[in-house]
Amino acid sequence: MNDLLPIVPTHSNAPIIIAGPCSAESKEQMMATATALSQAGITIFRAGAWKPRTSPGTFAGVGAIALQWLNDVKEATGMLTATEVANRTHVNLAINAGIDILWIGARTSANPFAMQEIADTIAERGATDKIVLVKNPVNPDLELWIGALQRIYNAGVRRLGAIHRGFSVYGKHLYRNVPQWDIPIELHLRYPELPILCDPSHIGGKRELVEPLSQEALNLGYAGLIVETHCDPDCAMSDASQQVTPQTLSEILERLHVPATTTKSESLTALRAKIDNLDSELIRVLSQRMAVCREIGRFKRDNNMKVVQAGRYNDIMHSRIAEGVESGLGEDFVRRLLLSVHDESVRQQIQIVSD
Ligand code: PEP
Ligand code: MN
């Protein structure tokens, strides 16, 4: 992928901004959102016609009628239009309607059959002038993401880009989809010409995270942002909690700082991003461990058992230290770490028992 073309013309290092609702809901909602965005200087409008929903029975998008509304937006504002495609039918309908940008969602980019079908349809239709953006797969698998991008590239598309929208994890987390900044950095190191955009809306899942995540992406030198924006976010039919109004987006964009160049060397940035990810993983695992400890605390309290049981503690220390040493960690370090984790577990259990 070394003969890519810019996805859209940009001025100097200004980020590419794509904005619009999660889902197209009505012509009025599309026009109200697009008009406000256009007045704020945004030139690319997104809206999902077909929505990949986790549970059946939830709003799955209005379907092909949304393509007509996207064209109404284009006629009224001159904005470029973008929508999600997940299969041959979607691609054909989007090409027929003249949609400018096709994006491929995280559930689809994880599926090589679907990716090949989309790539084949684009090639068969001779629609290689389309701009295609491929979101990272739901699972953190760089090769799968690259494979998805390569299928579109092999179909002849040269205005190709990637979108980091975070990765899905089980259980409660600060983020809806955890960002793993090192993965797109590695993608960038392998394909320096490939523009990477950040989707702070699907990473954060909450309005208030849109700005800090966007800033983080710009600090890392991302080419742009795709931000879910709705004229009445609280009433949105999908992803209400993460959508912002055009006015809020415009204020966020005003505040964002675009660094002139990334000063740190790229490989150092990549390594630091890896450390950041591992540290948050450590904290997540520790907090999960403490949650289990509190559950044990409740069990011991209800069954009149002592908090610290010496036999169990010695077993833990022995086997864990051996495991740590086996993994290349210093014996003393593992002992001190375990002691500290144990102290915190006891503190949390005592709190439960004395409640
Ligand atoms: C979307 O952009 O509306 C969407 C469904 O995104 P993702 O594929 O990242 O979940
Ligand atoms: Mn959405």
CATH topology-level fold name of the largest domain? TIM Barrel
Number of domains: 2
Helix content: 40-55%
What's the architecture of the largest domain in CATH terms?
Answer: Alpha-Beta Barrel
Bound small molecules, deduplicated: phosphoenolpyruvate, manganese (II) ion
Strand content: 5-15%
Distance between the termini: 61 Å
Shape: elongated
CATH superfamily of the largest domain: Aldolase class I
Biggest sheet character: 8 strands, parallel, barrel
Please provide the ordered H/E string of secondary-structure elements: EHEHEHEHHEHEHEHHEHHHH
In CATH's first tier, which class of the largest domain applies?
Answer: Alpha Beta
Q: Please tally the helical runs, counting DSSP H or I stretches of 4 or more residues.
A: 13
Number of strands: 8
How big is the Rg? 24 Å
Low-confidence stretches: none
Structural class: alpha/beta
- The average pLDDT score comes to 94
Sequence of strands across the biggest β-sheet: 1-2-3-4-5-6-7-8
